[in-house]
Structures are given as structure tokens and as C-alpha cells.
């Protein structure tokens, strides 16, 4: 079985035969694992724990675009390299602050229409110049130099089929 890369936290993954392991998680070409995040307009992270329909969104990445697909929705392509003029949000995930660059109004409208919620949402992207989270702030077993972005706790999570059987 392959590994999966999850570019957007809580959305479907992309199956891979190989990936590069980096300090901030898996990478395969342009997409990086959990480097995009859905947030509320107050900056708080939204995961499938709060919005279960997020798991129905499929993600692919080709030729500089992250494409979102969902049932009964037209595909939406978001540039991986966002315009410099897009605002940067101060986000909050698991009680910690981290930044994310806004993916634009068209993307927000697409996500809000699909989620059918009462609260507005935005999609943000972590960019390399931004400061990652330090998991040591949450759990002492981590090293002071460990870093993660929008994942729950660790930049790489491994699970084998045998471990859950």
C-alpha cells in the first residue's frame, strides 16, 4: 500500500508511491502535507471534528494548482503560489498561533457553499517564510527544535495496517 499526502487538513489524501520526508512533513512535488487549512473568519482552525463534510473534499495538485473536488460541486483550482497581495491570517490551531496566507474569496465561497454552514470559512496556506509551531509547547517529549505546521502534533504520522488489525 502507498503512503498518503494530505495537503488540506481534514480533506482526502493523495495516494503516493514515494515522497520526500522534510522537517515539516511529507512533500511530493509542489504539495506538502497539511500546509493548507480551513479556518473560521476569527482565525480558528476548522477540522473534520467540527465540519465532517471536509472529508468529502478530494485534493489534487498539477502544474502549479491545487484542485479541490467535491460531490455536486464544480472543481476549483487554487494557485499554489498565491499573490503577494493576499492577506495573511493569524490562525489558531490546538491553542497555538500560526499564520496562513488567504487563498482568496472564490475559494472561500466554494468551501462555504459545500459545507452549507452558518459560519463563514476561509482556506489558508502555510508559506515557507512563516514560523511553524513547536510541538514541545504541547508535549514535553518533543525536542525544542521540532516543528510542525497544521498537523495535529507531528509533521509525519505513520500507521501500518498490522498495527490496527
Outline the secondary-structure elements.
Blueprint (H helix, E strand, L loop, with lengths): L2 E3 L8 E3 L3 E3 L2 E3 L8 E5 L4 E2 L11 E5 L2 E5 L6 E4 L8 E6 L2 E7 L2 H11 L5 E5 L35 H4 L1
Coarse shape = globular
Strand content: 25-35%
Secondary-structure element pattern, one letter each: EEEEEEEEEEEHEH
* Overall radius of gyration: 15 Å
Overall pLDDT metric: 93
Q: What structural category do the secondary elements indicate? A: mainly beta
Alpha plus pi helix count: 2
Strands, total number: 12
Percent helix, as a range, is under 10%
This entry's quaternary arrangement is single chain
Spatial separation of the terminal alpha carbons: 15 Å
Largest sheet: 5 strands, antiparallel
- Runs in which pLDDT lies below 50 for 5 or more consecutive residues are none
Read across the widest sheet, the strand sequence of neighbours is 6-5-12-11-10
